[in-house]
Amino acid sequence: xxxxxxxxxxYLLRFDDMCPTMDWSLWDQVEGLLVEAGVKPILAVxxxxxxxxxxxxxxxxxxxxxxxxWQARGWSIGLHGYQHTYVNKDPGILRLNRKSEFAGLGYSxxxxxxxxxxxxxxxxxxxADAWVAPAHSFDWVTVSALSALGIRTISDGMxxxxxxxxxxxxxxxxxxxxxxxxxxxxxxxxYHLEDFTPKAMVTFRKRLKQLGPRMVSLQDVAGMGNRPxxxxxRLVGLLRQxxxxxxxxKR
Length: 251
Prior knowledge:
This protein is α/β, with parallel strands linked by helices. It is built from eight helices and eight strands. About 35% of the residues lie in helices and about 15% in strands. A five-stranded parallel sheet has the order 4-3-2-1-8. β2 (about 40-45), α3 (about 65-70) and β3 (about 75-80) form a beta-alpha-beta unit. The N and C termini lie far apart (about 40 Å).
């Protein structure tokens, strides 16, 4: 039995859609709570945001200074696509959403987008610790392109704990949108600032206090993935796909 199961559950926090025009007043509150709790999250940064839905506030002139400070603090930075614009309805490997910036495109086009995103990171002195796909949608072409560009850690997928795929890439699963206690395994909770209503902030504070002592960083769990994907992992994925399908039918 894996040691992380014996020792009990471990948790990671991830925040998506980090960009110059996000709600900074709200983020400053969240960041203060994370620092106070000693939590080291994964921050999914969009290299060149062109998504009009994320134009919430005037662009911060010190955005990249902030990103560099987060990484210097030991927080992980995820490459969150390139421009966060959806070009088709391909659900990709995980089949959770019917929109994608990458899935369904050819290898050369995907490599070009990824290279442009990484060039922005390089110019700004930021290292991509992991891949975070917009809308959870990417395909095996994306995975191959990422590997070729040196990104071998993927923050996504459904599993009980980190694992390696057949290409030797590390998958750190992202299973839930909100914090909740679990009996065992490694669980990533993914937040978006747009979901932080006053009520949600109260719940976030409560859960952070409750689960904070068992929070880990991406670096902490990287060594737990020396195993293949199991039947239990695949079952978790099938259950999540079924739930997502039911949600789409209700819309």
